[in-house]
Amino acid sequence: MTDRARQHQILAAARMLLEQEGPEALTMRRLAGLLGITAPSLYKHFPDKSSVVDALADAMLTETAEALEAAETAAPGSFPALATAYRAHALAPDDHLARAAWAFAHGMVMMELNNRFPTPESVTTAWTAGITALASSRL
């Protein structure tokens, strides 16, 4: 199995654990057991649990982007198509998490647009902290 295929397999298992059992279930040992490998084998692909969570968040954002890009390709310039695609994708996860994710993203962008951060770096730090917290909550 290639490294990329193994990473995909690890992320799929991690996502399943989070969706079915919540963030407390996602441990490197539990993930390895689910995959039938040893925990140290996971570290060949991800240095720690937070890197797994980051990769999951990245995958979820990529899925959202792909849904929106497909809507734009199907109906270029159509706000109704884009909004419908966003809604369909957002309704797929847990309702409370979807609301929290939207509120976080919207609030962060509004704060950034209104220059409510002391430095550009503080925006990135806050954004990363929020995404990490939401991703570890329940993807």
Average pLDDT: 87
CATH homology-level superfamily: Tetracycline Repressor, domain 2
SSE run: HHHHHHH
User: Structural class per helix/strand content?
Assistant: mainly alpha
Runs with pLDDT <50, length 5+? none
* Number of separate helices: 7
What's the total count of β strands?
0
Distance between the termini: 26 Å
Strand count, sense and barrel status of the largest sheet are:
none
CATH class descriptor name: Mainly Alpha
C-alpha-based Rg, rounded: 17 Å
What fold name stands as the CATH topology? Tetracycline Repressor, domain 2
Strand content: under 5%
As for the number of domains, it is 1
Helix percent reads over 70%
Which tags fit this structure?
139 residues; mainly alpha; Tetracycline Repressor, domain 2; globular
Outline of the structure:
The protein is mostly helical and 139 residues long. The chain has seven helices and no strands. Helix content is 77%, strand content 0%.
What does this structure look like?
This protein is mainly α and 139 residues long. The chain has seven helices and no strands. It has a single domain, classed as Tetracycline Repressor, domain 2 (Orthogonal Bundle), CATH 1.10.357. The protein is globular, with a radius of gyration of 17 Å. The mean pLDDT is 87.
